[in-house]
Write a structure and sequence with these properties.
The protein is α+β, with helices and mostly antiparallel strands and 364 residues long. The protein folds into three domains: 2-114, Roll (DNA Polymerase III, Chain A, domain 2), CATH 3.10.150; 125-243, Roll (DNA Polymerase III, Chain A, domain 2); 246-358, DNA Polymerase III, Chain A, domain 2 (Roll). It is built from six helices and 26 strands. The chain has helices at residues 7-18, 72-81, 130-140, 196-206, 258-268, 318-327; strands at 2-6, 33-39, 42-48, 52-59, 61-64, 66-71, 86-92, 95-100, 103-108, 125-129, 155-161, 164-170, 174-180, 192-195, 211-216, 220-224, 228-233, 252-257, 278-283, 286-293, 297-303, 306-308, 312-316, 332-337, 344-348, 351-358. The strands form four sheets. A nine-stranded antiparallel beta sheet has the order 14-11-12-13-26-25-24-18-22. An eight-stranded antiparallel beta sheet has the order 6-2-3-4-17-16-15-10. The protein has a five-stranded antiparallel beta sheet with strand order 5-1-7-8-9. It is elongated, with a radius of gyration of 25 Å.
């Protein structure tokens, strides 16, 4: 294998594919490497940990077709360290030679026959508008759990709703729901549970692409975006029955400017240390945000808000509240509460496609 390519282009492609490289190389050492395959002027770079696979295709000046598996971190670090401009990769026997400017490096490769045979999902291709899908990912992915001991909660549920697509994620402390009207990508009542890690990568790599292609197989899903394919295994199991968690009926409602609310919360939370919750005091005069940490200090800030309901003090994990306000897609938000112990719902004025539910924290 022999080729020439611009350094910056190659670094971007290697880094993208490298995000799927296994951190558990001791179990299968070859997965600590990137698989490079050159055919004509097309170089395909693949990284995988068997759960997540990212394959990036780019145009290069190909000389000799071939393939190699190269330790990912070392390869990326070496190429990134070179001077800008054209570089040359040349694989012979067991080594990859890298030349750029006055520099030359040789890296020992990993046998290519040890790299697993990876395939993309084989389901029918469905095209979806990228901007709305990425916006929905931004709203729900942060709510998924990062605890691998509870794999069901590390996923994002994709399910049909009213002729469109609904994305749902929860870590059992908060719940995010985002609907994409008119996006019919699932058949019938089909629902799938996609790892949030894979969807975070999809969101990262979409860039300015106008659309992406989704393929759903029996046990995996692929997302194709302009020369890049992200493939992931689906999570097997039943997502929690989230609908029953969403309060219905009469509730207190506070309407407030989102940016003003978010800025105030970020300031006051500086005094919410040592896992101290943030208190919201809501009444007809508006909103007061309070943080009190024993032996540290306290913070107070009042915010103009319209409140309809009984006077109420409710406390939340400040990080979860910030996350909800940060992802809410609108200028004004409505915080709907029943009492200080039942789930609260954050909505956006005039937008029925977004919902963020968070559990209050009991305070004295």
């Amino acid at each position: 294998m022999k080729l020439r390519c611009e350094r910056d282009t190659l670094v971007e492609a290697l880094t993208t594919a490298g995000r799927a490289v296994s951190g558990r190389g001791g179990q299968l050492p070859v997965l600590s490497g990137l698989h490079l395959v050159l055919t004509g002027d097309q170089l395909v770079i693949t990284g995988s940990d068997l759960e997540l696979t990212i394959a990036r295709t780019l145009e290069v000046n190909g000389d000799t077709d071939g393939s190699a598996v190269v330790p990912a971190k070392l390869l990326i670090d070496v190429i990134r360290s070179l001077e800008p401009g054209a570089i040359e990769l040349d694989v012979s026997d067991l080594d990859l030679t890298i030349r750029g400017g006055r520099s030359e490096f040789s890296i020992r490769t990993i046998p290519t026959d040890e790299f697993p045979q990876l395939v993309s999902a084989q389901g029918p291709a469905v095209t979806i508008e990228a901007t709305s899908f990425v916006a929905a990912l931004r709203q729900v992915v942060p709510a998924a759990s990062g605890d691998d001991s509870r794999p069901i909660l590390t996923g994002v549920l994709l399910t049909p709703v009213d002729g469109g697509l609904r994305l749902v994620a929860t870590d059992s402390y908060r719940l995010a729901v985002s609907d994409i009207p008119g996006a019919s990508v699932l058949e019938g009542d089909q629902s799938v549970l996609v790892p949030s890690r894979a969807l975070a990568e999809v969101r990262r790599v979409v860039g300015e692409a106008p659309e992406l292609t989704l393929r759903l197989g029996e046990s995996d899903a692929s997302f194709e975006i302009e020369g890049l394919v992200v493939t992931t295994r689906l999570i097997d199991g039943d997502f929690p029955k989230y609908e029953g968690l969403i309060p219905t009926g009469e509730s207190n409602s506070m309407v407030v400017n989102r940016e003003t609310f978010l800025d105030a919360v970020r300031r006051v939370r500086l005094l919410a240390q040592e896992s101290t919750p943030l208190r919201l005091v809501m009444n007809s005069d508006g909103l007061e945000i309070v943080a009190i940490t024993q032996d540290v200090g306290e913070g107070h800030e009042t915010v103009d808000a319209t409140y309809d309901g009984d006077e109420l003090t409710v406390a939340f994990n400040p990080s979860f509240l910030v996350d909800g306000l940060d992802i809410a897609p609108g200028e004004e938000v409505a915080l709907q509460t029943i009492d200080s112990l039942k789930p609260a719902v954050l909505r956006v004025a005039g937008n029925e496609n977004f919902l963020y539910l968070l559990m209050p924290v009991r305070v004295p």
